[in-house]
Amino acid sequence: MEAHPEAFEELVDLALSDDPEYAWRAGWLLWSCITENDPRLIGRIKDFMEVLPAKSGPQQRELLILLSKMDIEPEIAGEVFEHCVQIWTNPTLQASLRYNAFKLMSIVAKNYPGLKTELKLLLEDDFFTGLSENVRKSVFRKMKGLEAKK
Prior knowledge:
By secondary structure, this protein is mainly alpha-helical. It has 2 domains: 1-71, no CATH class; 73-150. Helices cover 61% and strands 0% of the residues. The radius of gyration is 15 Å and the shape is globular. It starts with 7 loop residues before the first helix and ends with a helix.
């Protein structure tokens, strides 16, 4: 992307696409080359959120990571949080997808403190099915850090 910044919009479109072979790779490349709250993506956050539920696990993971680098607008914060809850509570999904969903939920809850209580409810043992002990520890560290920022 450094060598061809003119291809940025094409990369965004590919990350949003239904191309099963390249969309998740485009998402990975996109989040790896943007800055926090990258101005080139501010107007596209809703686009990412609209396609997120329909994408495959790897593409969803990359889109969640990308969204975690952006400020989530109040109008869609609840929708983002709710979609992440659906991912987090589904033990059949990949651990990396579920963990990134929790990370994004904690970011949203940091900005919207009313969601902290709901997030605490998602820390029961049942929600850790299929996840490693390291993921469990990381989730509780994130939660502890979130509670410290009251």
